[in-house]
Specification:
Layout lengths: L7 E5 L5 E6 L5 E5 L5 E6 L3 E7 L7 H14 L2 E7 L8 H11 L3 E4 L8 H8 L3 E5 L6 H7 L23 E5 L2 E5 L13 H7 L4 H4 L16 H8 L4 H13 L8
Parallel strand pairs: 5-6, 5-8, 6-7, 8-10
Antiparallel strand pairs: 1-2, 3-4, 9-10
Bound molecules: guanosine-5'-triphosphate, magnesium ion and zinc ion.
The site of guanosine-5'-triphosphate has 23 residues, from helix 4.
Amino acid sequence: MPVPGDVAYVRLLDDEQVLIEHLDARRSTLVRRAPDGREKTIAANVDTLVTVTALALPAPRATILDRLLAFAEIEGITAFVVLTKPDLAPPGAVQSWEGLYARLGYATLVVDPKHGEHVEELRAMLRERSSLLCGVSGVGKSTIFRALGGQAAVGELSRHGLGRQTTTTARLYRLAGGFLIDSPGVAEFGLGPIAPQELASAFVEMERFVQRCRFSDCTHLQEPGCAIREAVSDGAIDAGRYASYRQILRAGPAHAMVQ
Ligand SMILES: Nc1nc2c(ncn2[C@@H]2O[C@H](COP(=O)(O)OP(=O)(O)OP(=O)(O)O)[C@@H](O)[C@H]2O)c(=O)[nH]1
Ligand SMILES: [Mg+2]
Ligand SMILES: [Zn+2]
């Protein structure tokens, strides 16, 4: 089955229909792993994951963002951190979220796609890239997609934080030298079974400490002589990021949230 990002050669049959004659081999796929082990291909040929996190409505959840960032590290693709709804954010939230992820080295941008703020900076970041928007429902993925020129339904948030106009089908829009995909419900890919060492290495700031723990199979949860826990108490590793690490490990392979 073709997925967004596939290169297809088609024959036009009439106004409504096309016949797919050939699909190019995929350079890469993004796969979601469900808790029961089933896999679903979400998109093909994507090289950049554009994580979208609202600073309010719905309130940001670091674990979801950190899990997406770890997923991108493991898959070997670039991740961007896009923060939305600065106009609704509580005081200080913009600086603390933007500061944290920028310090980690992620390309981080605060946009207000509803009012068109910093949309052109985002367009420049996405040049020559094949990207997928991901994040929980209602954070503004489709609003970004539309602000950049794509066609998508944008939802109003109910007080429960669920979009009434939630996206139900994936869409792809061509951008200079690449494309952008808006797809429904991609807040989580599921990391599959993952060893603590592998997960710690997928947290970019933890990687350099991994080799320094007393035990080579340290889980960084409670062992004595753990360099990562030491770095957390020194403030060299953000405590919230470490909390995400613990939560992801605790949730284990069985956890894969499909919203
Ligand atoms: N105030 C404000 N509202 C925004 C901003 N970005 C998006 N919104 C609003 O947030 C609501 C939800 O936006 P959508 O773009 O539909 O969210 P989505 O991420 O596509 O949601 P799903 O398709 O359900 O995954 C809409 O009412 C948007 O107008 C922003 O920066 N500020
Ligand atoms: Mg949407
Ligand atoms: Zn350790």
